[in-house]
Specification:
RmlC-like_jellyroll, cNMP-bd_dom, Crp/Fnr family transcriptional regulator, Jelly Rolls
């Protein structure tokens, strides 16, 4: 029921509609280091994280981290899944991961069948968009220490699960400066 309470933060979905959604979920396990999606691949399934940490990233002269996912969040390359187009990014498991998933076609059927499920996903996408805008602003308006503090308040568990070089990339902080912050700023 944890996921039900999580969903209700976005929309007051009924138990009947919640069960309609979760009855269509299937289970998949991934090992640390497994790729869920690679550039050029279309994400055909939307994942719901049960356990583990995943990372969306792209490669240039180094690894650029876009986002992390973990319970109870969704795990997806949003534009690839939503528009069924090839991904430009990697979606990789940073730890062993247990994910539940629903196919694009199944989800479209549920969205057509239930206004409550459709509204839930619309609200979740709106929240994701607002989060991306906040991150974009934070990367430009906050000092590196402020970014680090916000991250630690929002996702403190990731400090012990994710290699610090990836968190530094996500926050737009040089790994050496991140290491200094990690050792000096305590929570």
């Amino acid at each position: 029921m944890e996921r039900y309470h999580y969903f209700r933060q976005f929309h007051d979905i009924s138990l009947a509609d919640y069960h309609l959604l979760i009855e269509n979920l299937q289970h998949r396990s991934f090992k640390k280091g497994d790729s869920i999606i690679v550039p050029g691949q279309i994400q055909r399934d939307l994942y719901f994280v049960k356990s583990g940490v995943q990372m969306a990233s792209f490669e240039g002269d180094k690894t650029y981290v876009i986002d992390f996912s973990y319970f109870p969040f969704l795990c997806a390359i949003a534009e690839s899944f939503s528009f069924q187009v090839p991904s430009k990014y990697f979606l990789t498991c940073l730890t062993d991961s247990e994910l539940e998933y629903i196919s694009y076609e199944q989800l479209q059927g549920l969205l057509d069948q239930s206004q409550q499920i459709e509204r839930l996903f619309r609200r979740m996408i709106e929240a994701m968009l607002a989060g991306m805008v906040d991150l974009h602003i934070n990367l430009r308006a906050m000092t590196i220490e402020e970014r680090y503090r916000v991250f630690c308040q929002r996702s403190p568990q990731l400090l012990h699960l994710v290699p610090h070089k990836y968190i530094a990339s996500y926050l737009g902080i040089d790994p050496t400066n991140f290491s200094k912050l990690f050792n000096q700023v305590k929570f």
